[in-house]
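Q: How would the structure tokens look for this protein?
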Amino acid sequence: MIERARKGISTWVKSRPRLYRHVFSLRHLRHLYRSVGGELELAESDLFLHELPQRKEFFRRAFQYLAFNQIEGDYAEFGCFGAMTFRVAWSASRIVDYRTHLWGFDSFDGLPATDNPKDQHPRWTANWLSTSAEDFDELCRSAGLARDDYTTVSGYYEDSLRLGAEGARPERISFAYVDCDLYSSTVDVLSFLETRLVPGSVVGFDDWFCYSPKGPSGERLAALEHFANSQWSLVPFVQYGWHGMSFLVEETASVPPPVGPW
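A: Here is the predicted structure in token form.
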């Protein structure tokens, strides 16, 4: 295989003008093959691992965007398993000096049981993705978050996000991160966000590219339905990893529908 690759590069160079043949000596060819060949090899560090580098870059860019445009508001995360993205969000907001209060909405008991056919997906089962409220607080504390930096709201969304639910809720949300997987849960989240988003808010969907055997599933299906009749239009922002997609929101009356493979 190595010899075949070397011959392939040699053939390519010979087909170039004399200038290329002069620049690409045999020594250069060997160096080129070694360097490119090394980049083509996959290592254990390239395994999925929640696409963490891309996710971190997305959060940094999102908060930098909010800070530059002086769009004020709170960060709200819906689905807080493992406190991973929550801690990344806190770190990214601080590194760009975007001071925001963080809200974590979760049952802290895993995914709810559901018989809604629109929730169908081979990976989403009841009680999966469970992190207790105590473990969540400990993970945040170990990452340097002070208890005053964030607020958690426990319960399934049909209860915790309903109008009139007890306790404080964010009134102005500049960054919403939706990671609740299920269609029915996302419906509740988007209804809650409708009157709390502001022009230019970031909405990230952790599971945008998820499908059931019948088509779009979960967060994507709920968003497609909700924003078809919303005061907000989605403007594509940053895709991260294979799974996540983010959008900015603008008032529907002020912009044409977005165009793209979203």
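The chain is about 35% helix and 20% strand.

Confidence is low (pLDDT under 50) at residues 19-24.

Upvote if useful.
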